[in-house]
Amino acid sequence: MSLDTGEHPSSPAPSVGLFGYRGSRPRPAGGFELWAWLFMRISGLVLLFLVVGHVLIMHLPGEGVGRIDFGFVADRWKNPLWRSWDWAMLCLALLHGVNGLRVVVQDYVRPAAWRFAVNMFFYVVTFILFVLGTVLVFTFDPSRWPGAS
Amino acid sequence: MAKRKSDFTTLYRGATSQYAWLFHRITGVAIILFLFAHVVDTAVIGWGPQAYDRVMAVYENWAVRLLELGLVAAVIYHALNGVRVMVFDFWPATTKYTKGLTRATFLLWLACMVPITWLMGKQILDLLGVIG
Questions:
Q1: For chain A, how many structural domains are there in total?
Q2: Residue A149: its pLDDT value, please?
Q3: What does the mean pLDDT of chain B come to?
Q4: Cα–Cα distance between A112 and A33 in angstroms, integer?
Q5: At A130, is the secondary structure helix, strand, or coil?
Q6: For a tag site, which of A25, A63, A146, B46 has the least CB within 10 Å?
Q7: What's the rounded mean pLDDT across residues A77-98?
Q8: Does A92 touch chain B (CB under 8 A)?
Q9: How far is residue A29's CA from residue B4's CA, in Å, rounded to a whole number?
Q10: ipTM of the complex as predicted
Q11: Whole-number pLDDT of residue B9
Q12: Which residues of A touch B25 (CB under 8 A)?
């Protein structure tokens, strides 16, 4: 059984079942798609530690997210480890997520113009958030608000 | 359009692994959409304590906390299922045990969610003033 990734204009995707596709993605033969496939797995493994760690640290101890305020973040970001952690997470999660969206769009948005538009929308949003998050992680300085933390 | 005869019924009755794939996709899309919002709400800290603490006040709400529990559940599921996918990808011999490994993934996720739901559930009850 061949499962395509939606890039075969000559053969329409097999519309089997309620959601069209029924399996996980087979490994692409080569080129960009193979690198994207590999990136998803490697970044996924790193994100397993970064994101699961982040989510558990933020939600489980004490009052959970209720304890997070300006002082909490300012204190945490005094340590370069957490700034690095958060920035690595920002980069990898955005790339992993936007590539995941690209695959989903490939499956469900068939008309070429729409697919291009939807993908572009996600790429632009991702880029803007990458810049916003990066500027923040590298320039945030709580001493601009004395007495706040 | 002529009615098409097919070997498949209209509603695909997916086996265990197809549900695993479907949940992976749903949780993945949910997580990236949350991330888009989360980068923005965190970036508000650059505008100072007043602005940030006002944004964080959103979490003083049981419904938002329930959504957070759902987010944690989605992240844990997506992570565990991602490992399952990688096991099959890089160690093809294991595909003989597809069903067992997929079930094991669901069970492991459930096992993780028991203490997490307990801890986060206590926080929600605490917030509502049910327990102190």
A1: 1
A2: 59
A3: 87
A4: 18
A5: helix
A6: A146
A7: 95
A8: no
A9: 33
A10: 0.83
A11: 54
A12: 104
